[in-house]
Hints:
This protein is of the alpha/beta class. It contains ten helices and eight strands.
Amino acid sequence: xxxxxxxxxxxxxxxxxxxxxxxxxxxxxxxxxxxxxxxxxxxxxxxxxxxxxxxxxxxxxxxxxxxxxxxxxxxxxxxxxxxxxxxxxxxxxxxxxxxxxxxxxxxxxxxxxxxxxxxxxxxxxxxxxxxxxxxxxxxxxxxxxxxxxxxxxxxxxxxxxxxxxxxxxxxxxxxxxxxxxxxxxxxxxxxxxxxxxxxxxxxxxxxxxxxxxxxxxxxxxxxxxxxxxxxxxxxxxxxxxxxxxxxxxxxxxxxxxxxxxxxxxxxxxxxxxxxxxxxxxxx
Length: 283
Ligand code: ZN
């Protein structure tokens, strides 16, 4: 397992951690000033802007772009909407390519509206990914499937465990040609009794594309926007990093904290300093 003190280029920040308060240019400059090694922006921060200029600014600051966040949902209840979502995600892949991002984070969508047919929503998500994979390969951006905590199954993601994500990768890319893999986010997967075995399985197939860190607060008050700083909650973040690195992952450790009441109300520079301190001491 890497000693992050010797791998500062692996210290990454997902811009959501700052609560989208400043333009992306200011966020890039702030992260650059602290020697951050990688930045993961959100598409909403780039829309309507000059993406090539943003890419140059990130590159000039010697930061990698592990991923662009994130896909549109693939599980709408009618075929027309699902086709539109595929087209929108193709455009998102183009945006990721222009940005120089290695992956597009795929949050696949939950149950279709007014549906109780979870199996069907999962089939639609899988079909959408199948349609996207050739374009992802064409533009050189990986589809990083992010399993989300089961509490999100109804509204955000019917892809819920690493093991399920491994199965989908194998179905879509049985020969291991690439272009598709998994983003492991500790907040979503820490509870899974099969975590170690399924991360090992994903690693064995070279499928781990991203690693996101935050913490689960014991007294969490919101299941989306009350993520904790690493070390403030109950997740063995370092233990899980050991698992993904044992599985061959050598990429960035990206802090991704949605925290409407705490960190989004703290100054961005203070939040960043705490992230970097905790990356080294708790992750
Ligand atoms: Zn994540």
